[in-house]
Amino acid sequence: MTTTPSVLFVCVHNAGRSQMAAGFLSHLAGDAIEVRSAGSAPAGSINPAAAEAMSEVGIDITAQTPKILTTDAVQASDVVITMGCGDSCPIFPGKSYRDWVLEDPAGQGVDAVRPIRDEIKTRVEALIAELTSQPATR
């Protein structure tokens, strides 16, 4: 029996990169992949430049809120993608861990965030192709 694969995106503040990645994955994969995002030190709100950059491509992430990274979120995910949170992410056997090295959009304007957004979209598209071309196992 196959189950829906699940992905957890983790960055420090859960306000920019991980929220953009989760937005793209939800938008592009629909119900085919379960999506989570969290941060090791969550910000108080979504990065406005990240929200603006995403709205330019038709994805609204303004209703999202930064969430604290929990052990349960990692345990419930098949793939954990970190974006600059280093060693603060708990490691569990049987999970697939990846580190996406991406510039931090914190404090930057939308012009600087657009190339980060576009790189995230490219990586998410490749992730979708990978996860939907093979049976998911839990």
From TrEMBL:
Residues 5-130 form the Phosphotyrosine protein phosphatase I domain. This is Arsenate reductase. SMART domains: LMWPc (SM00226). Coiled coil: none annotated. One of its GO terms (biological process) is response to arsenic-containing substance. It comes from the Bacteria. InterPro entries: Ptyr_pPase (IPR023485), Ptyr_pPase_sf (IPR036196). Keywords: Arsenical resistance. It comes from Williamsia limnetica.
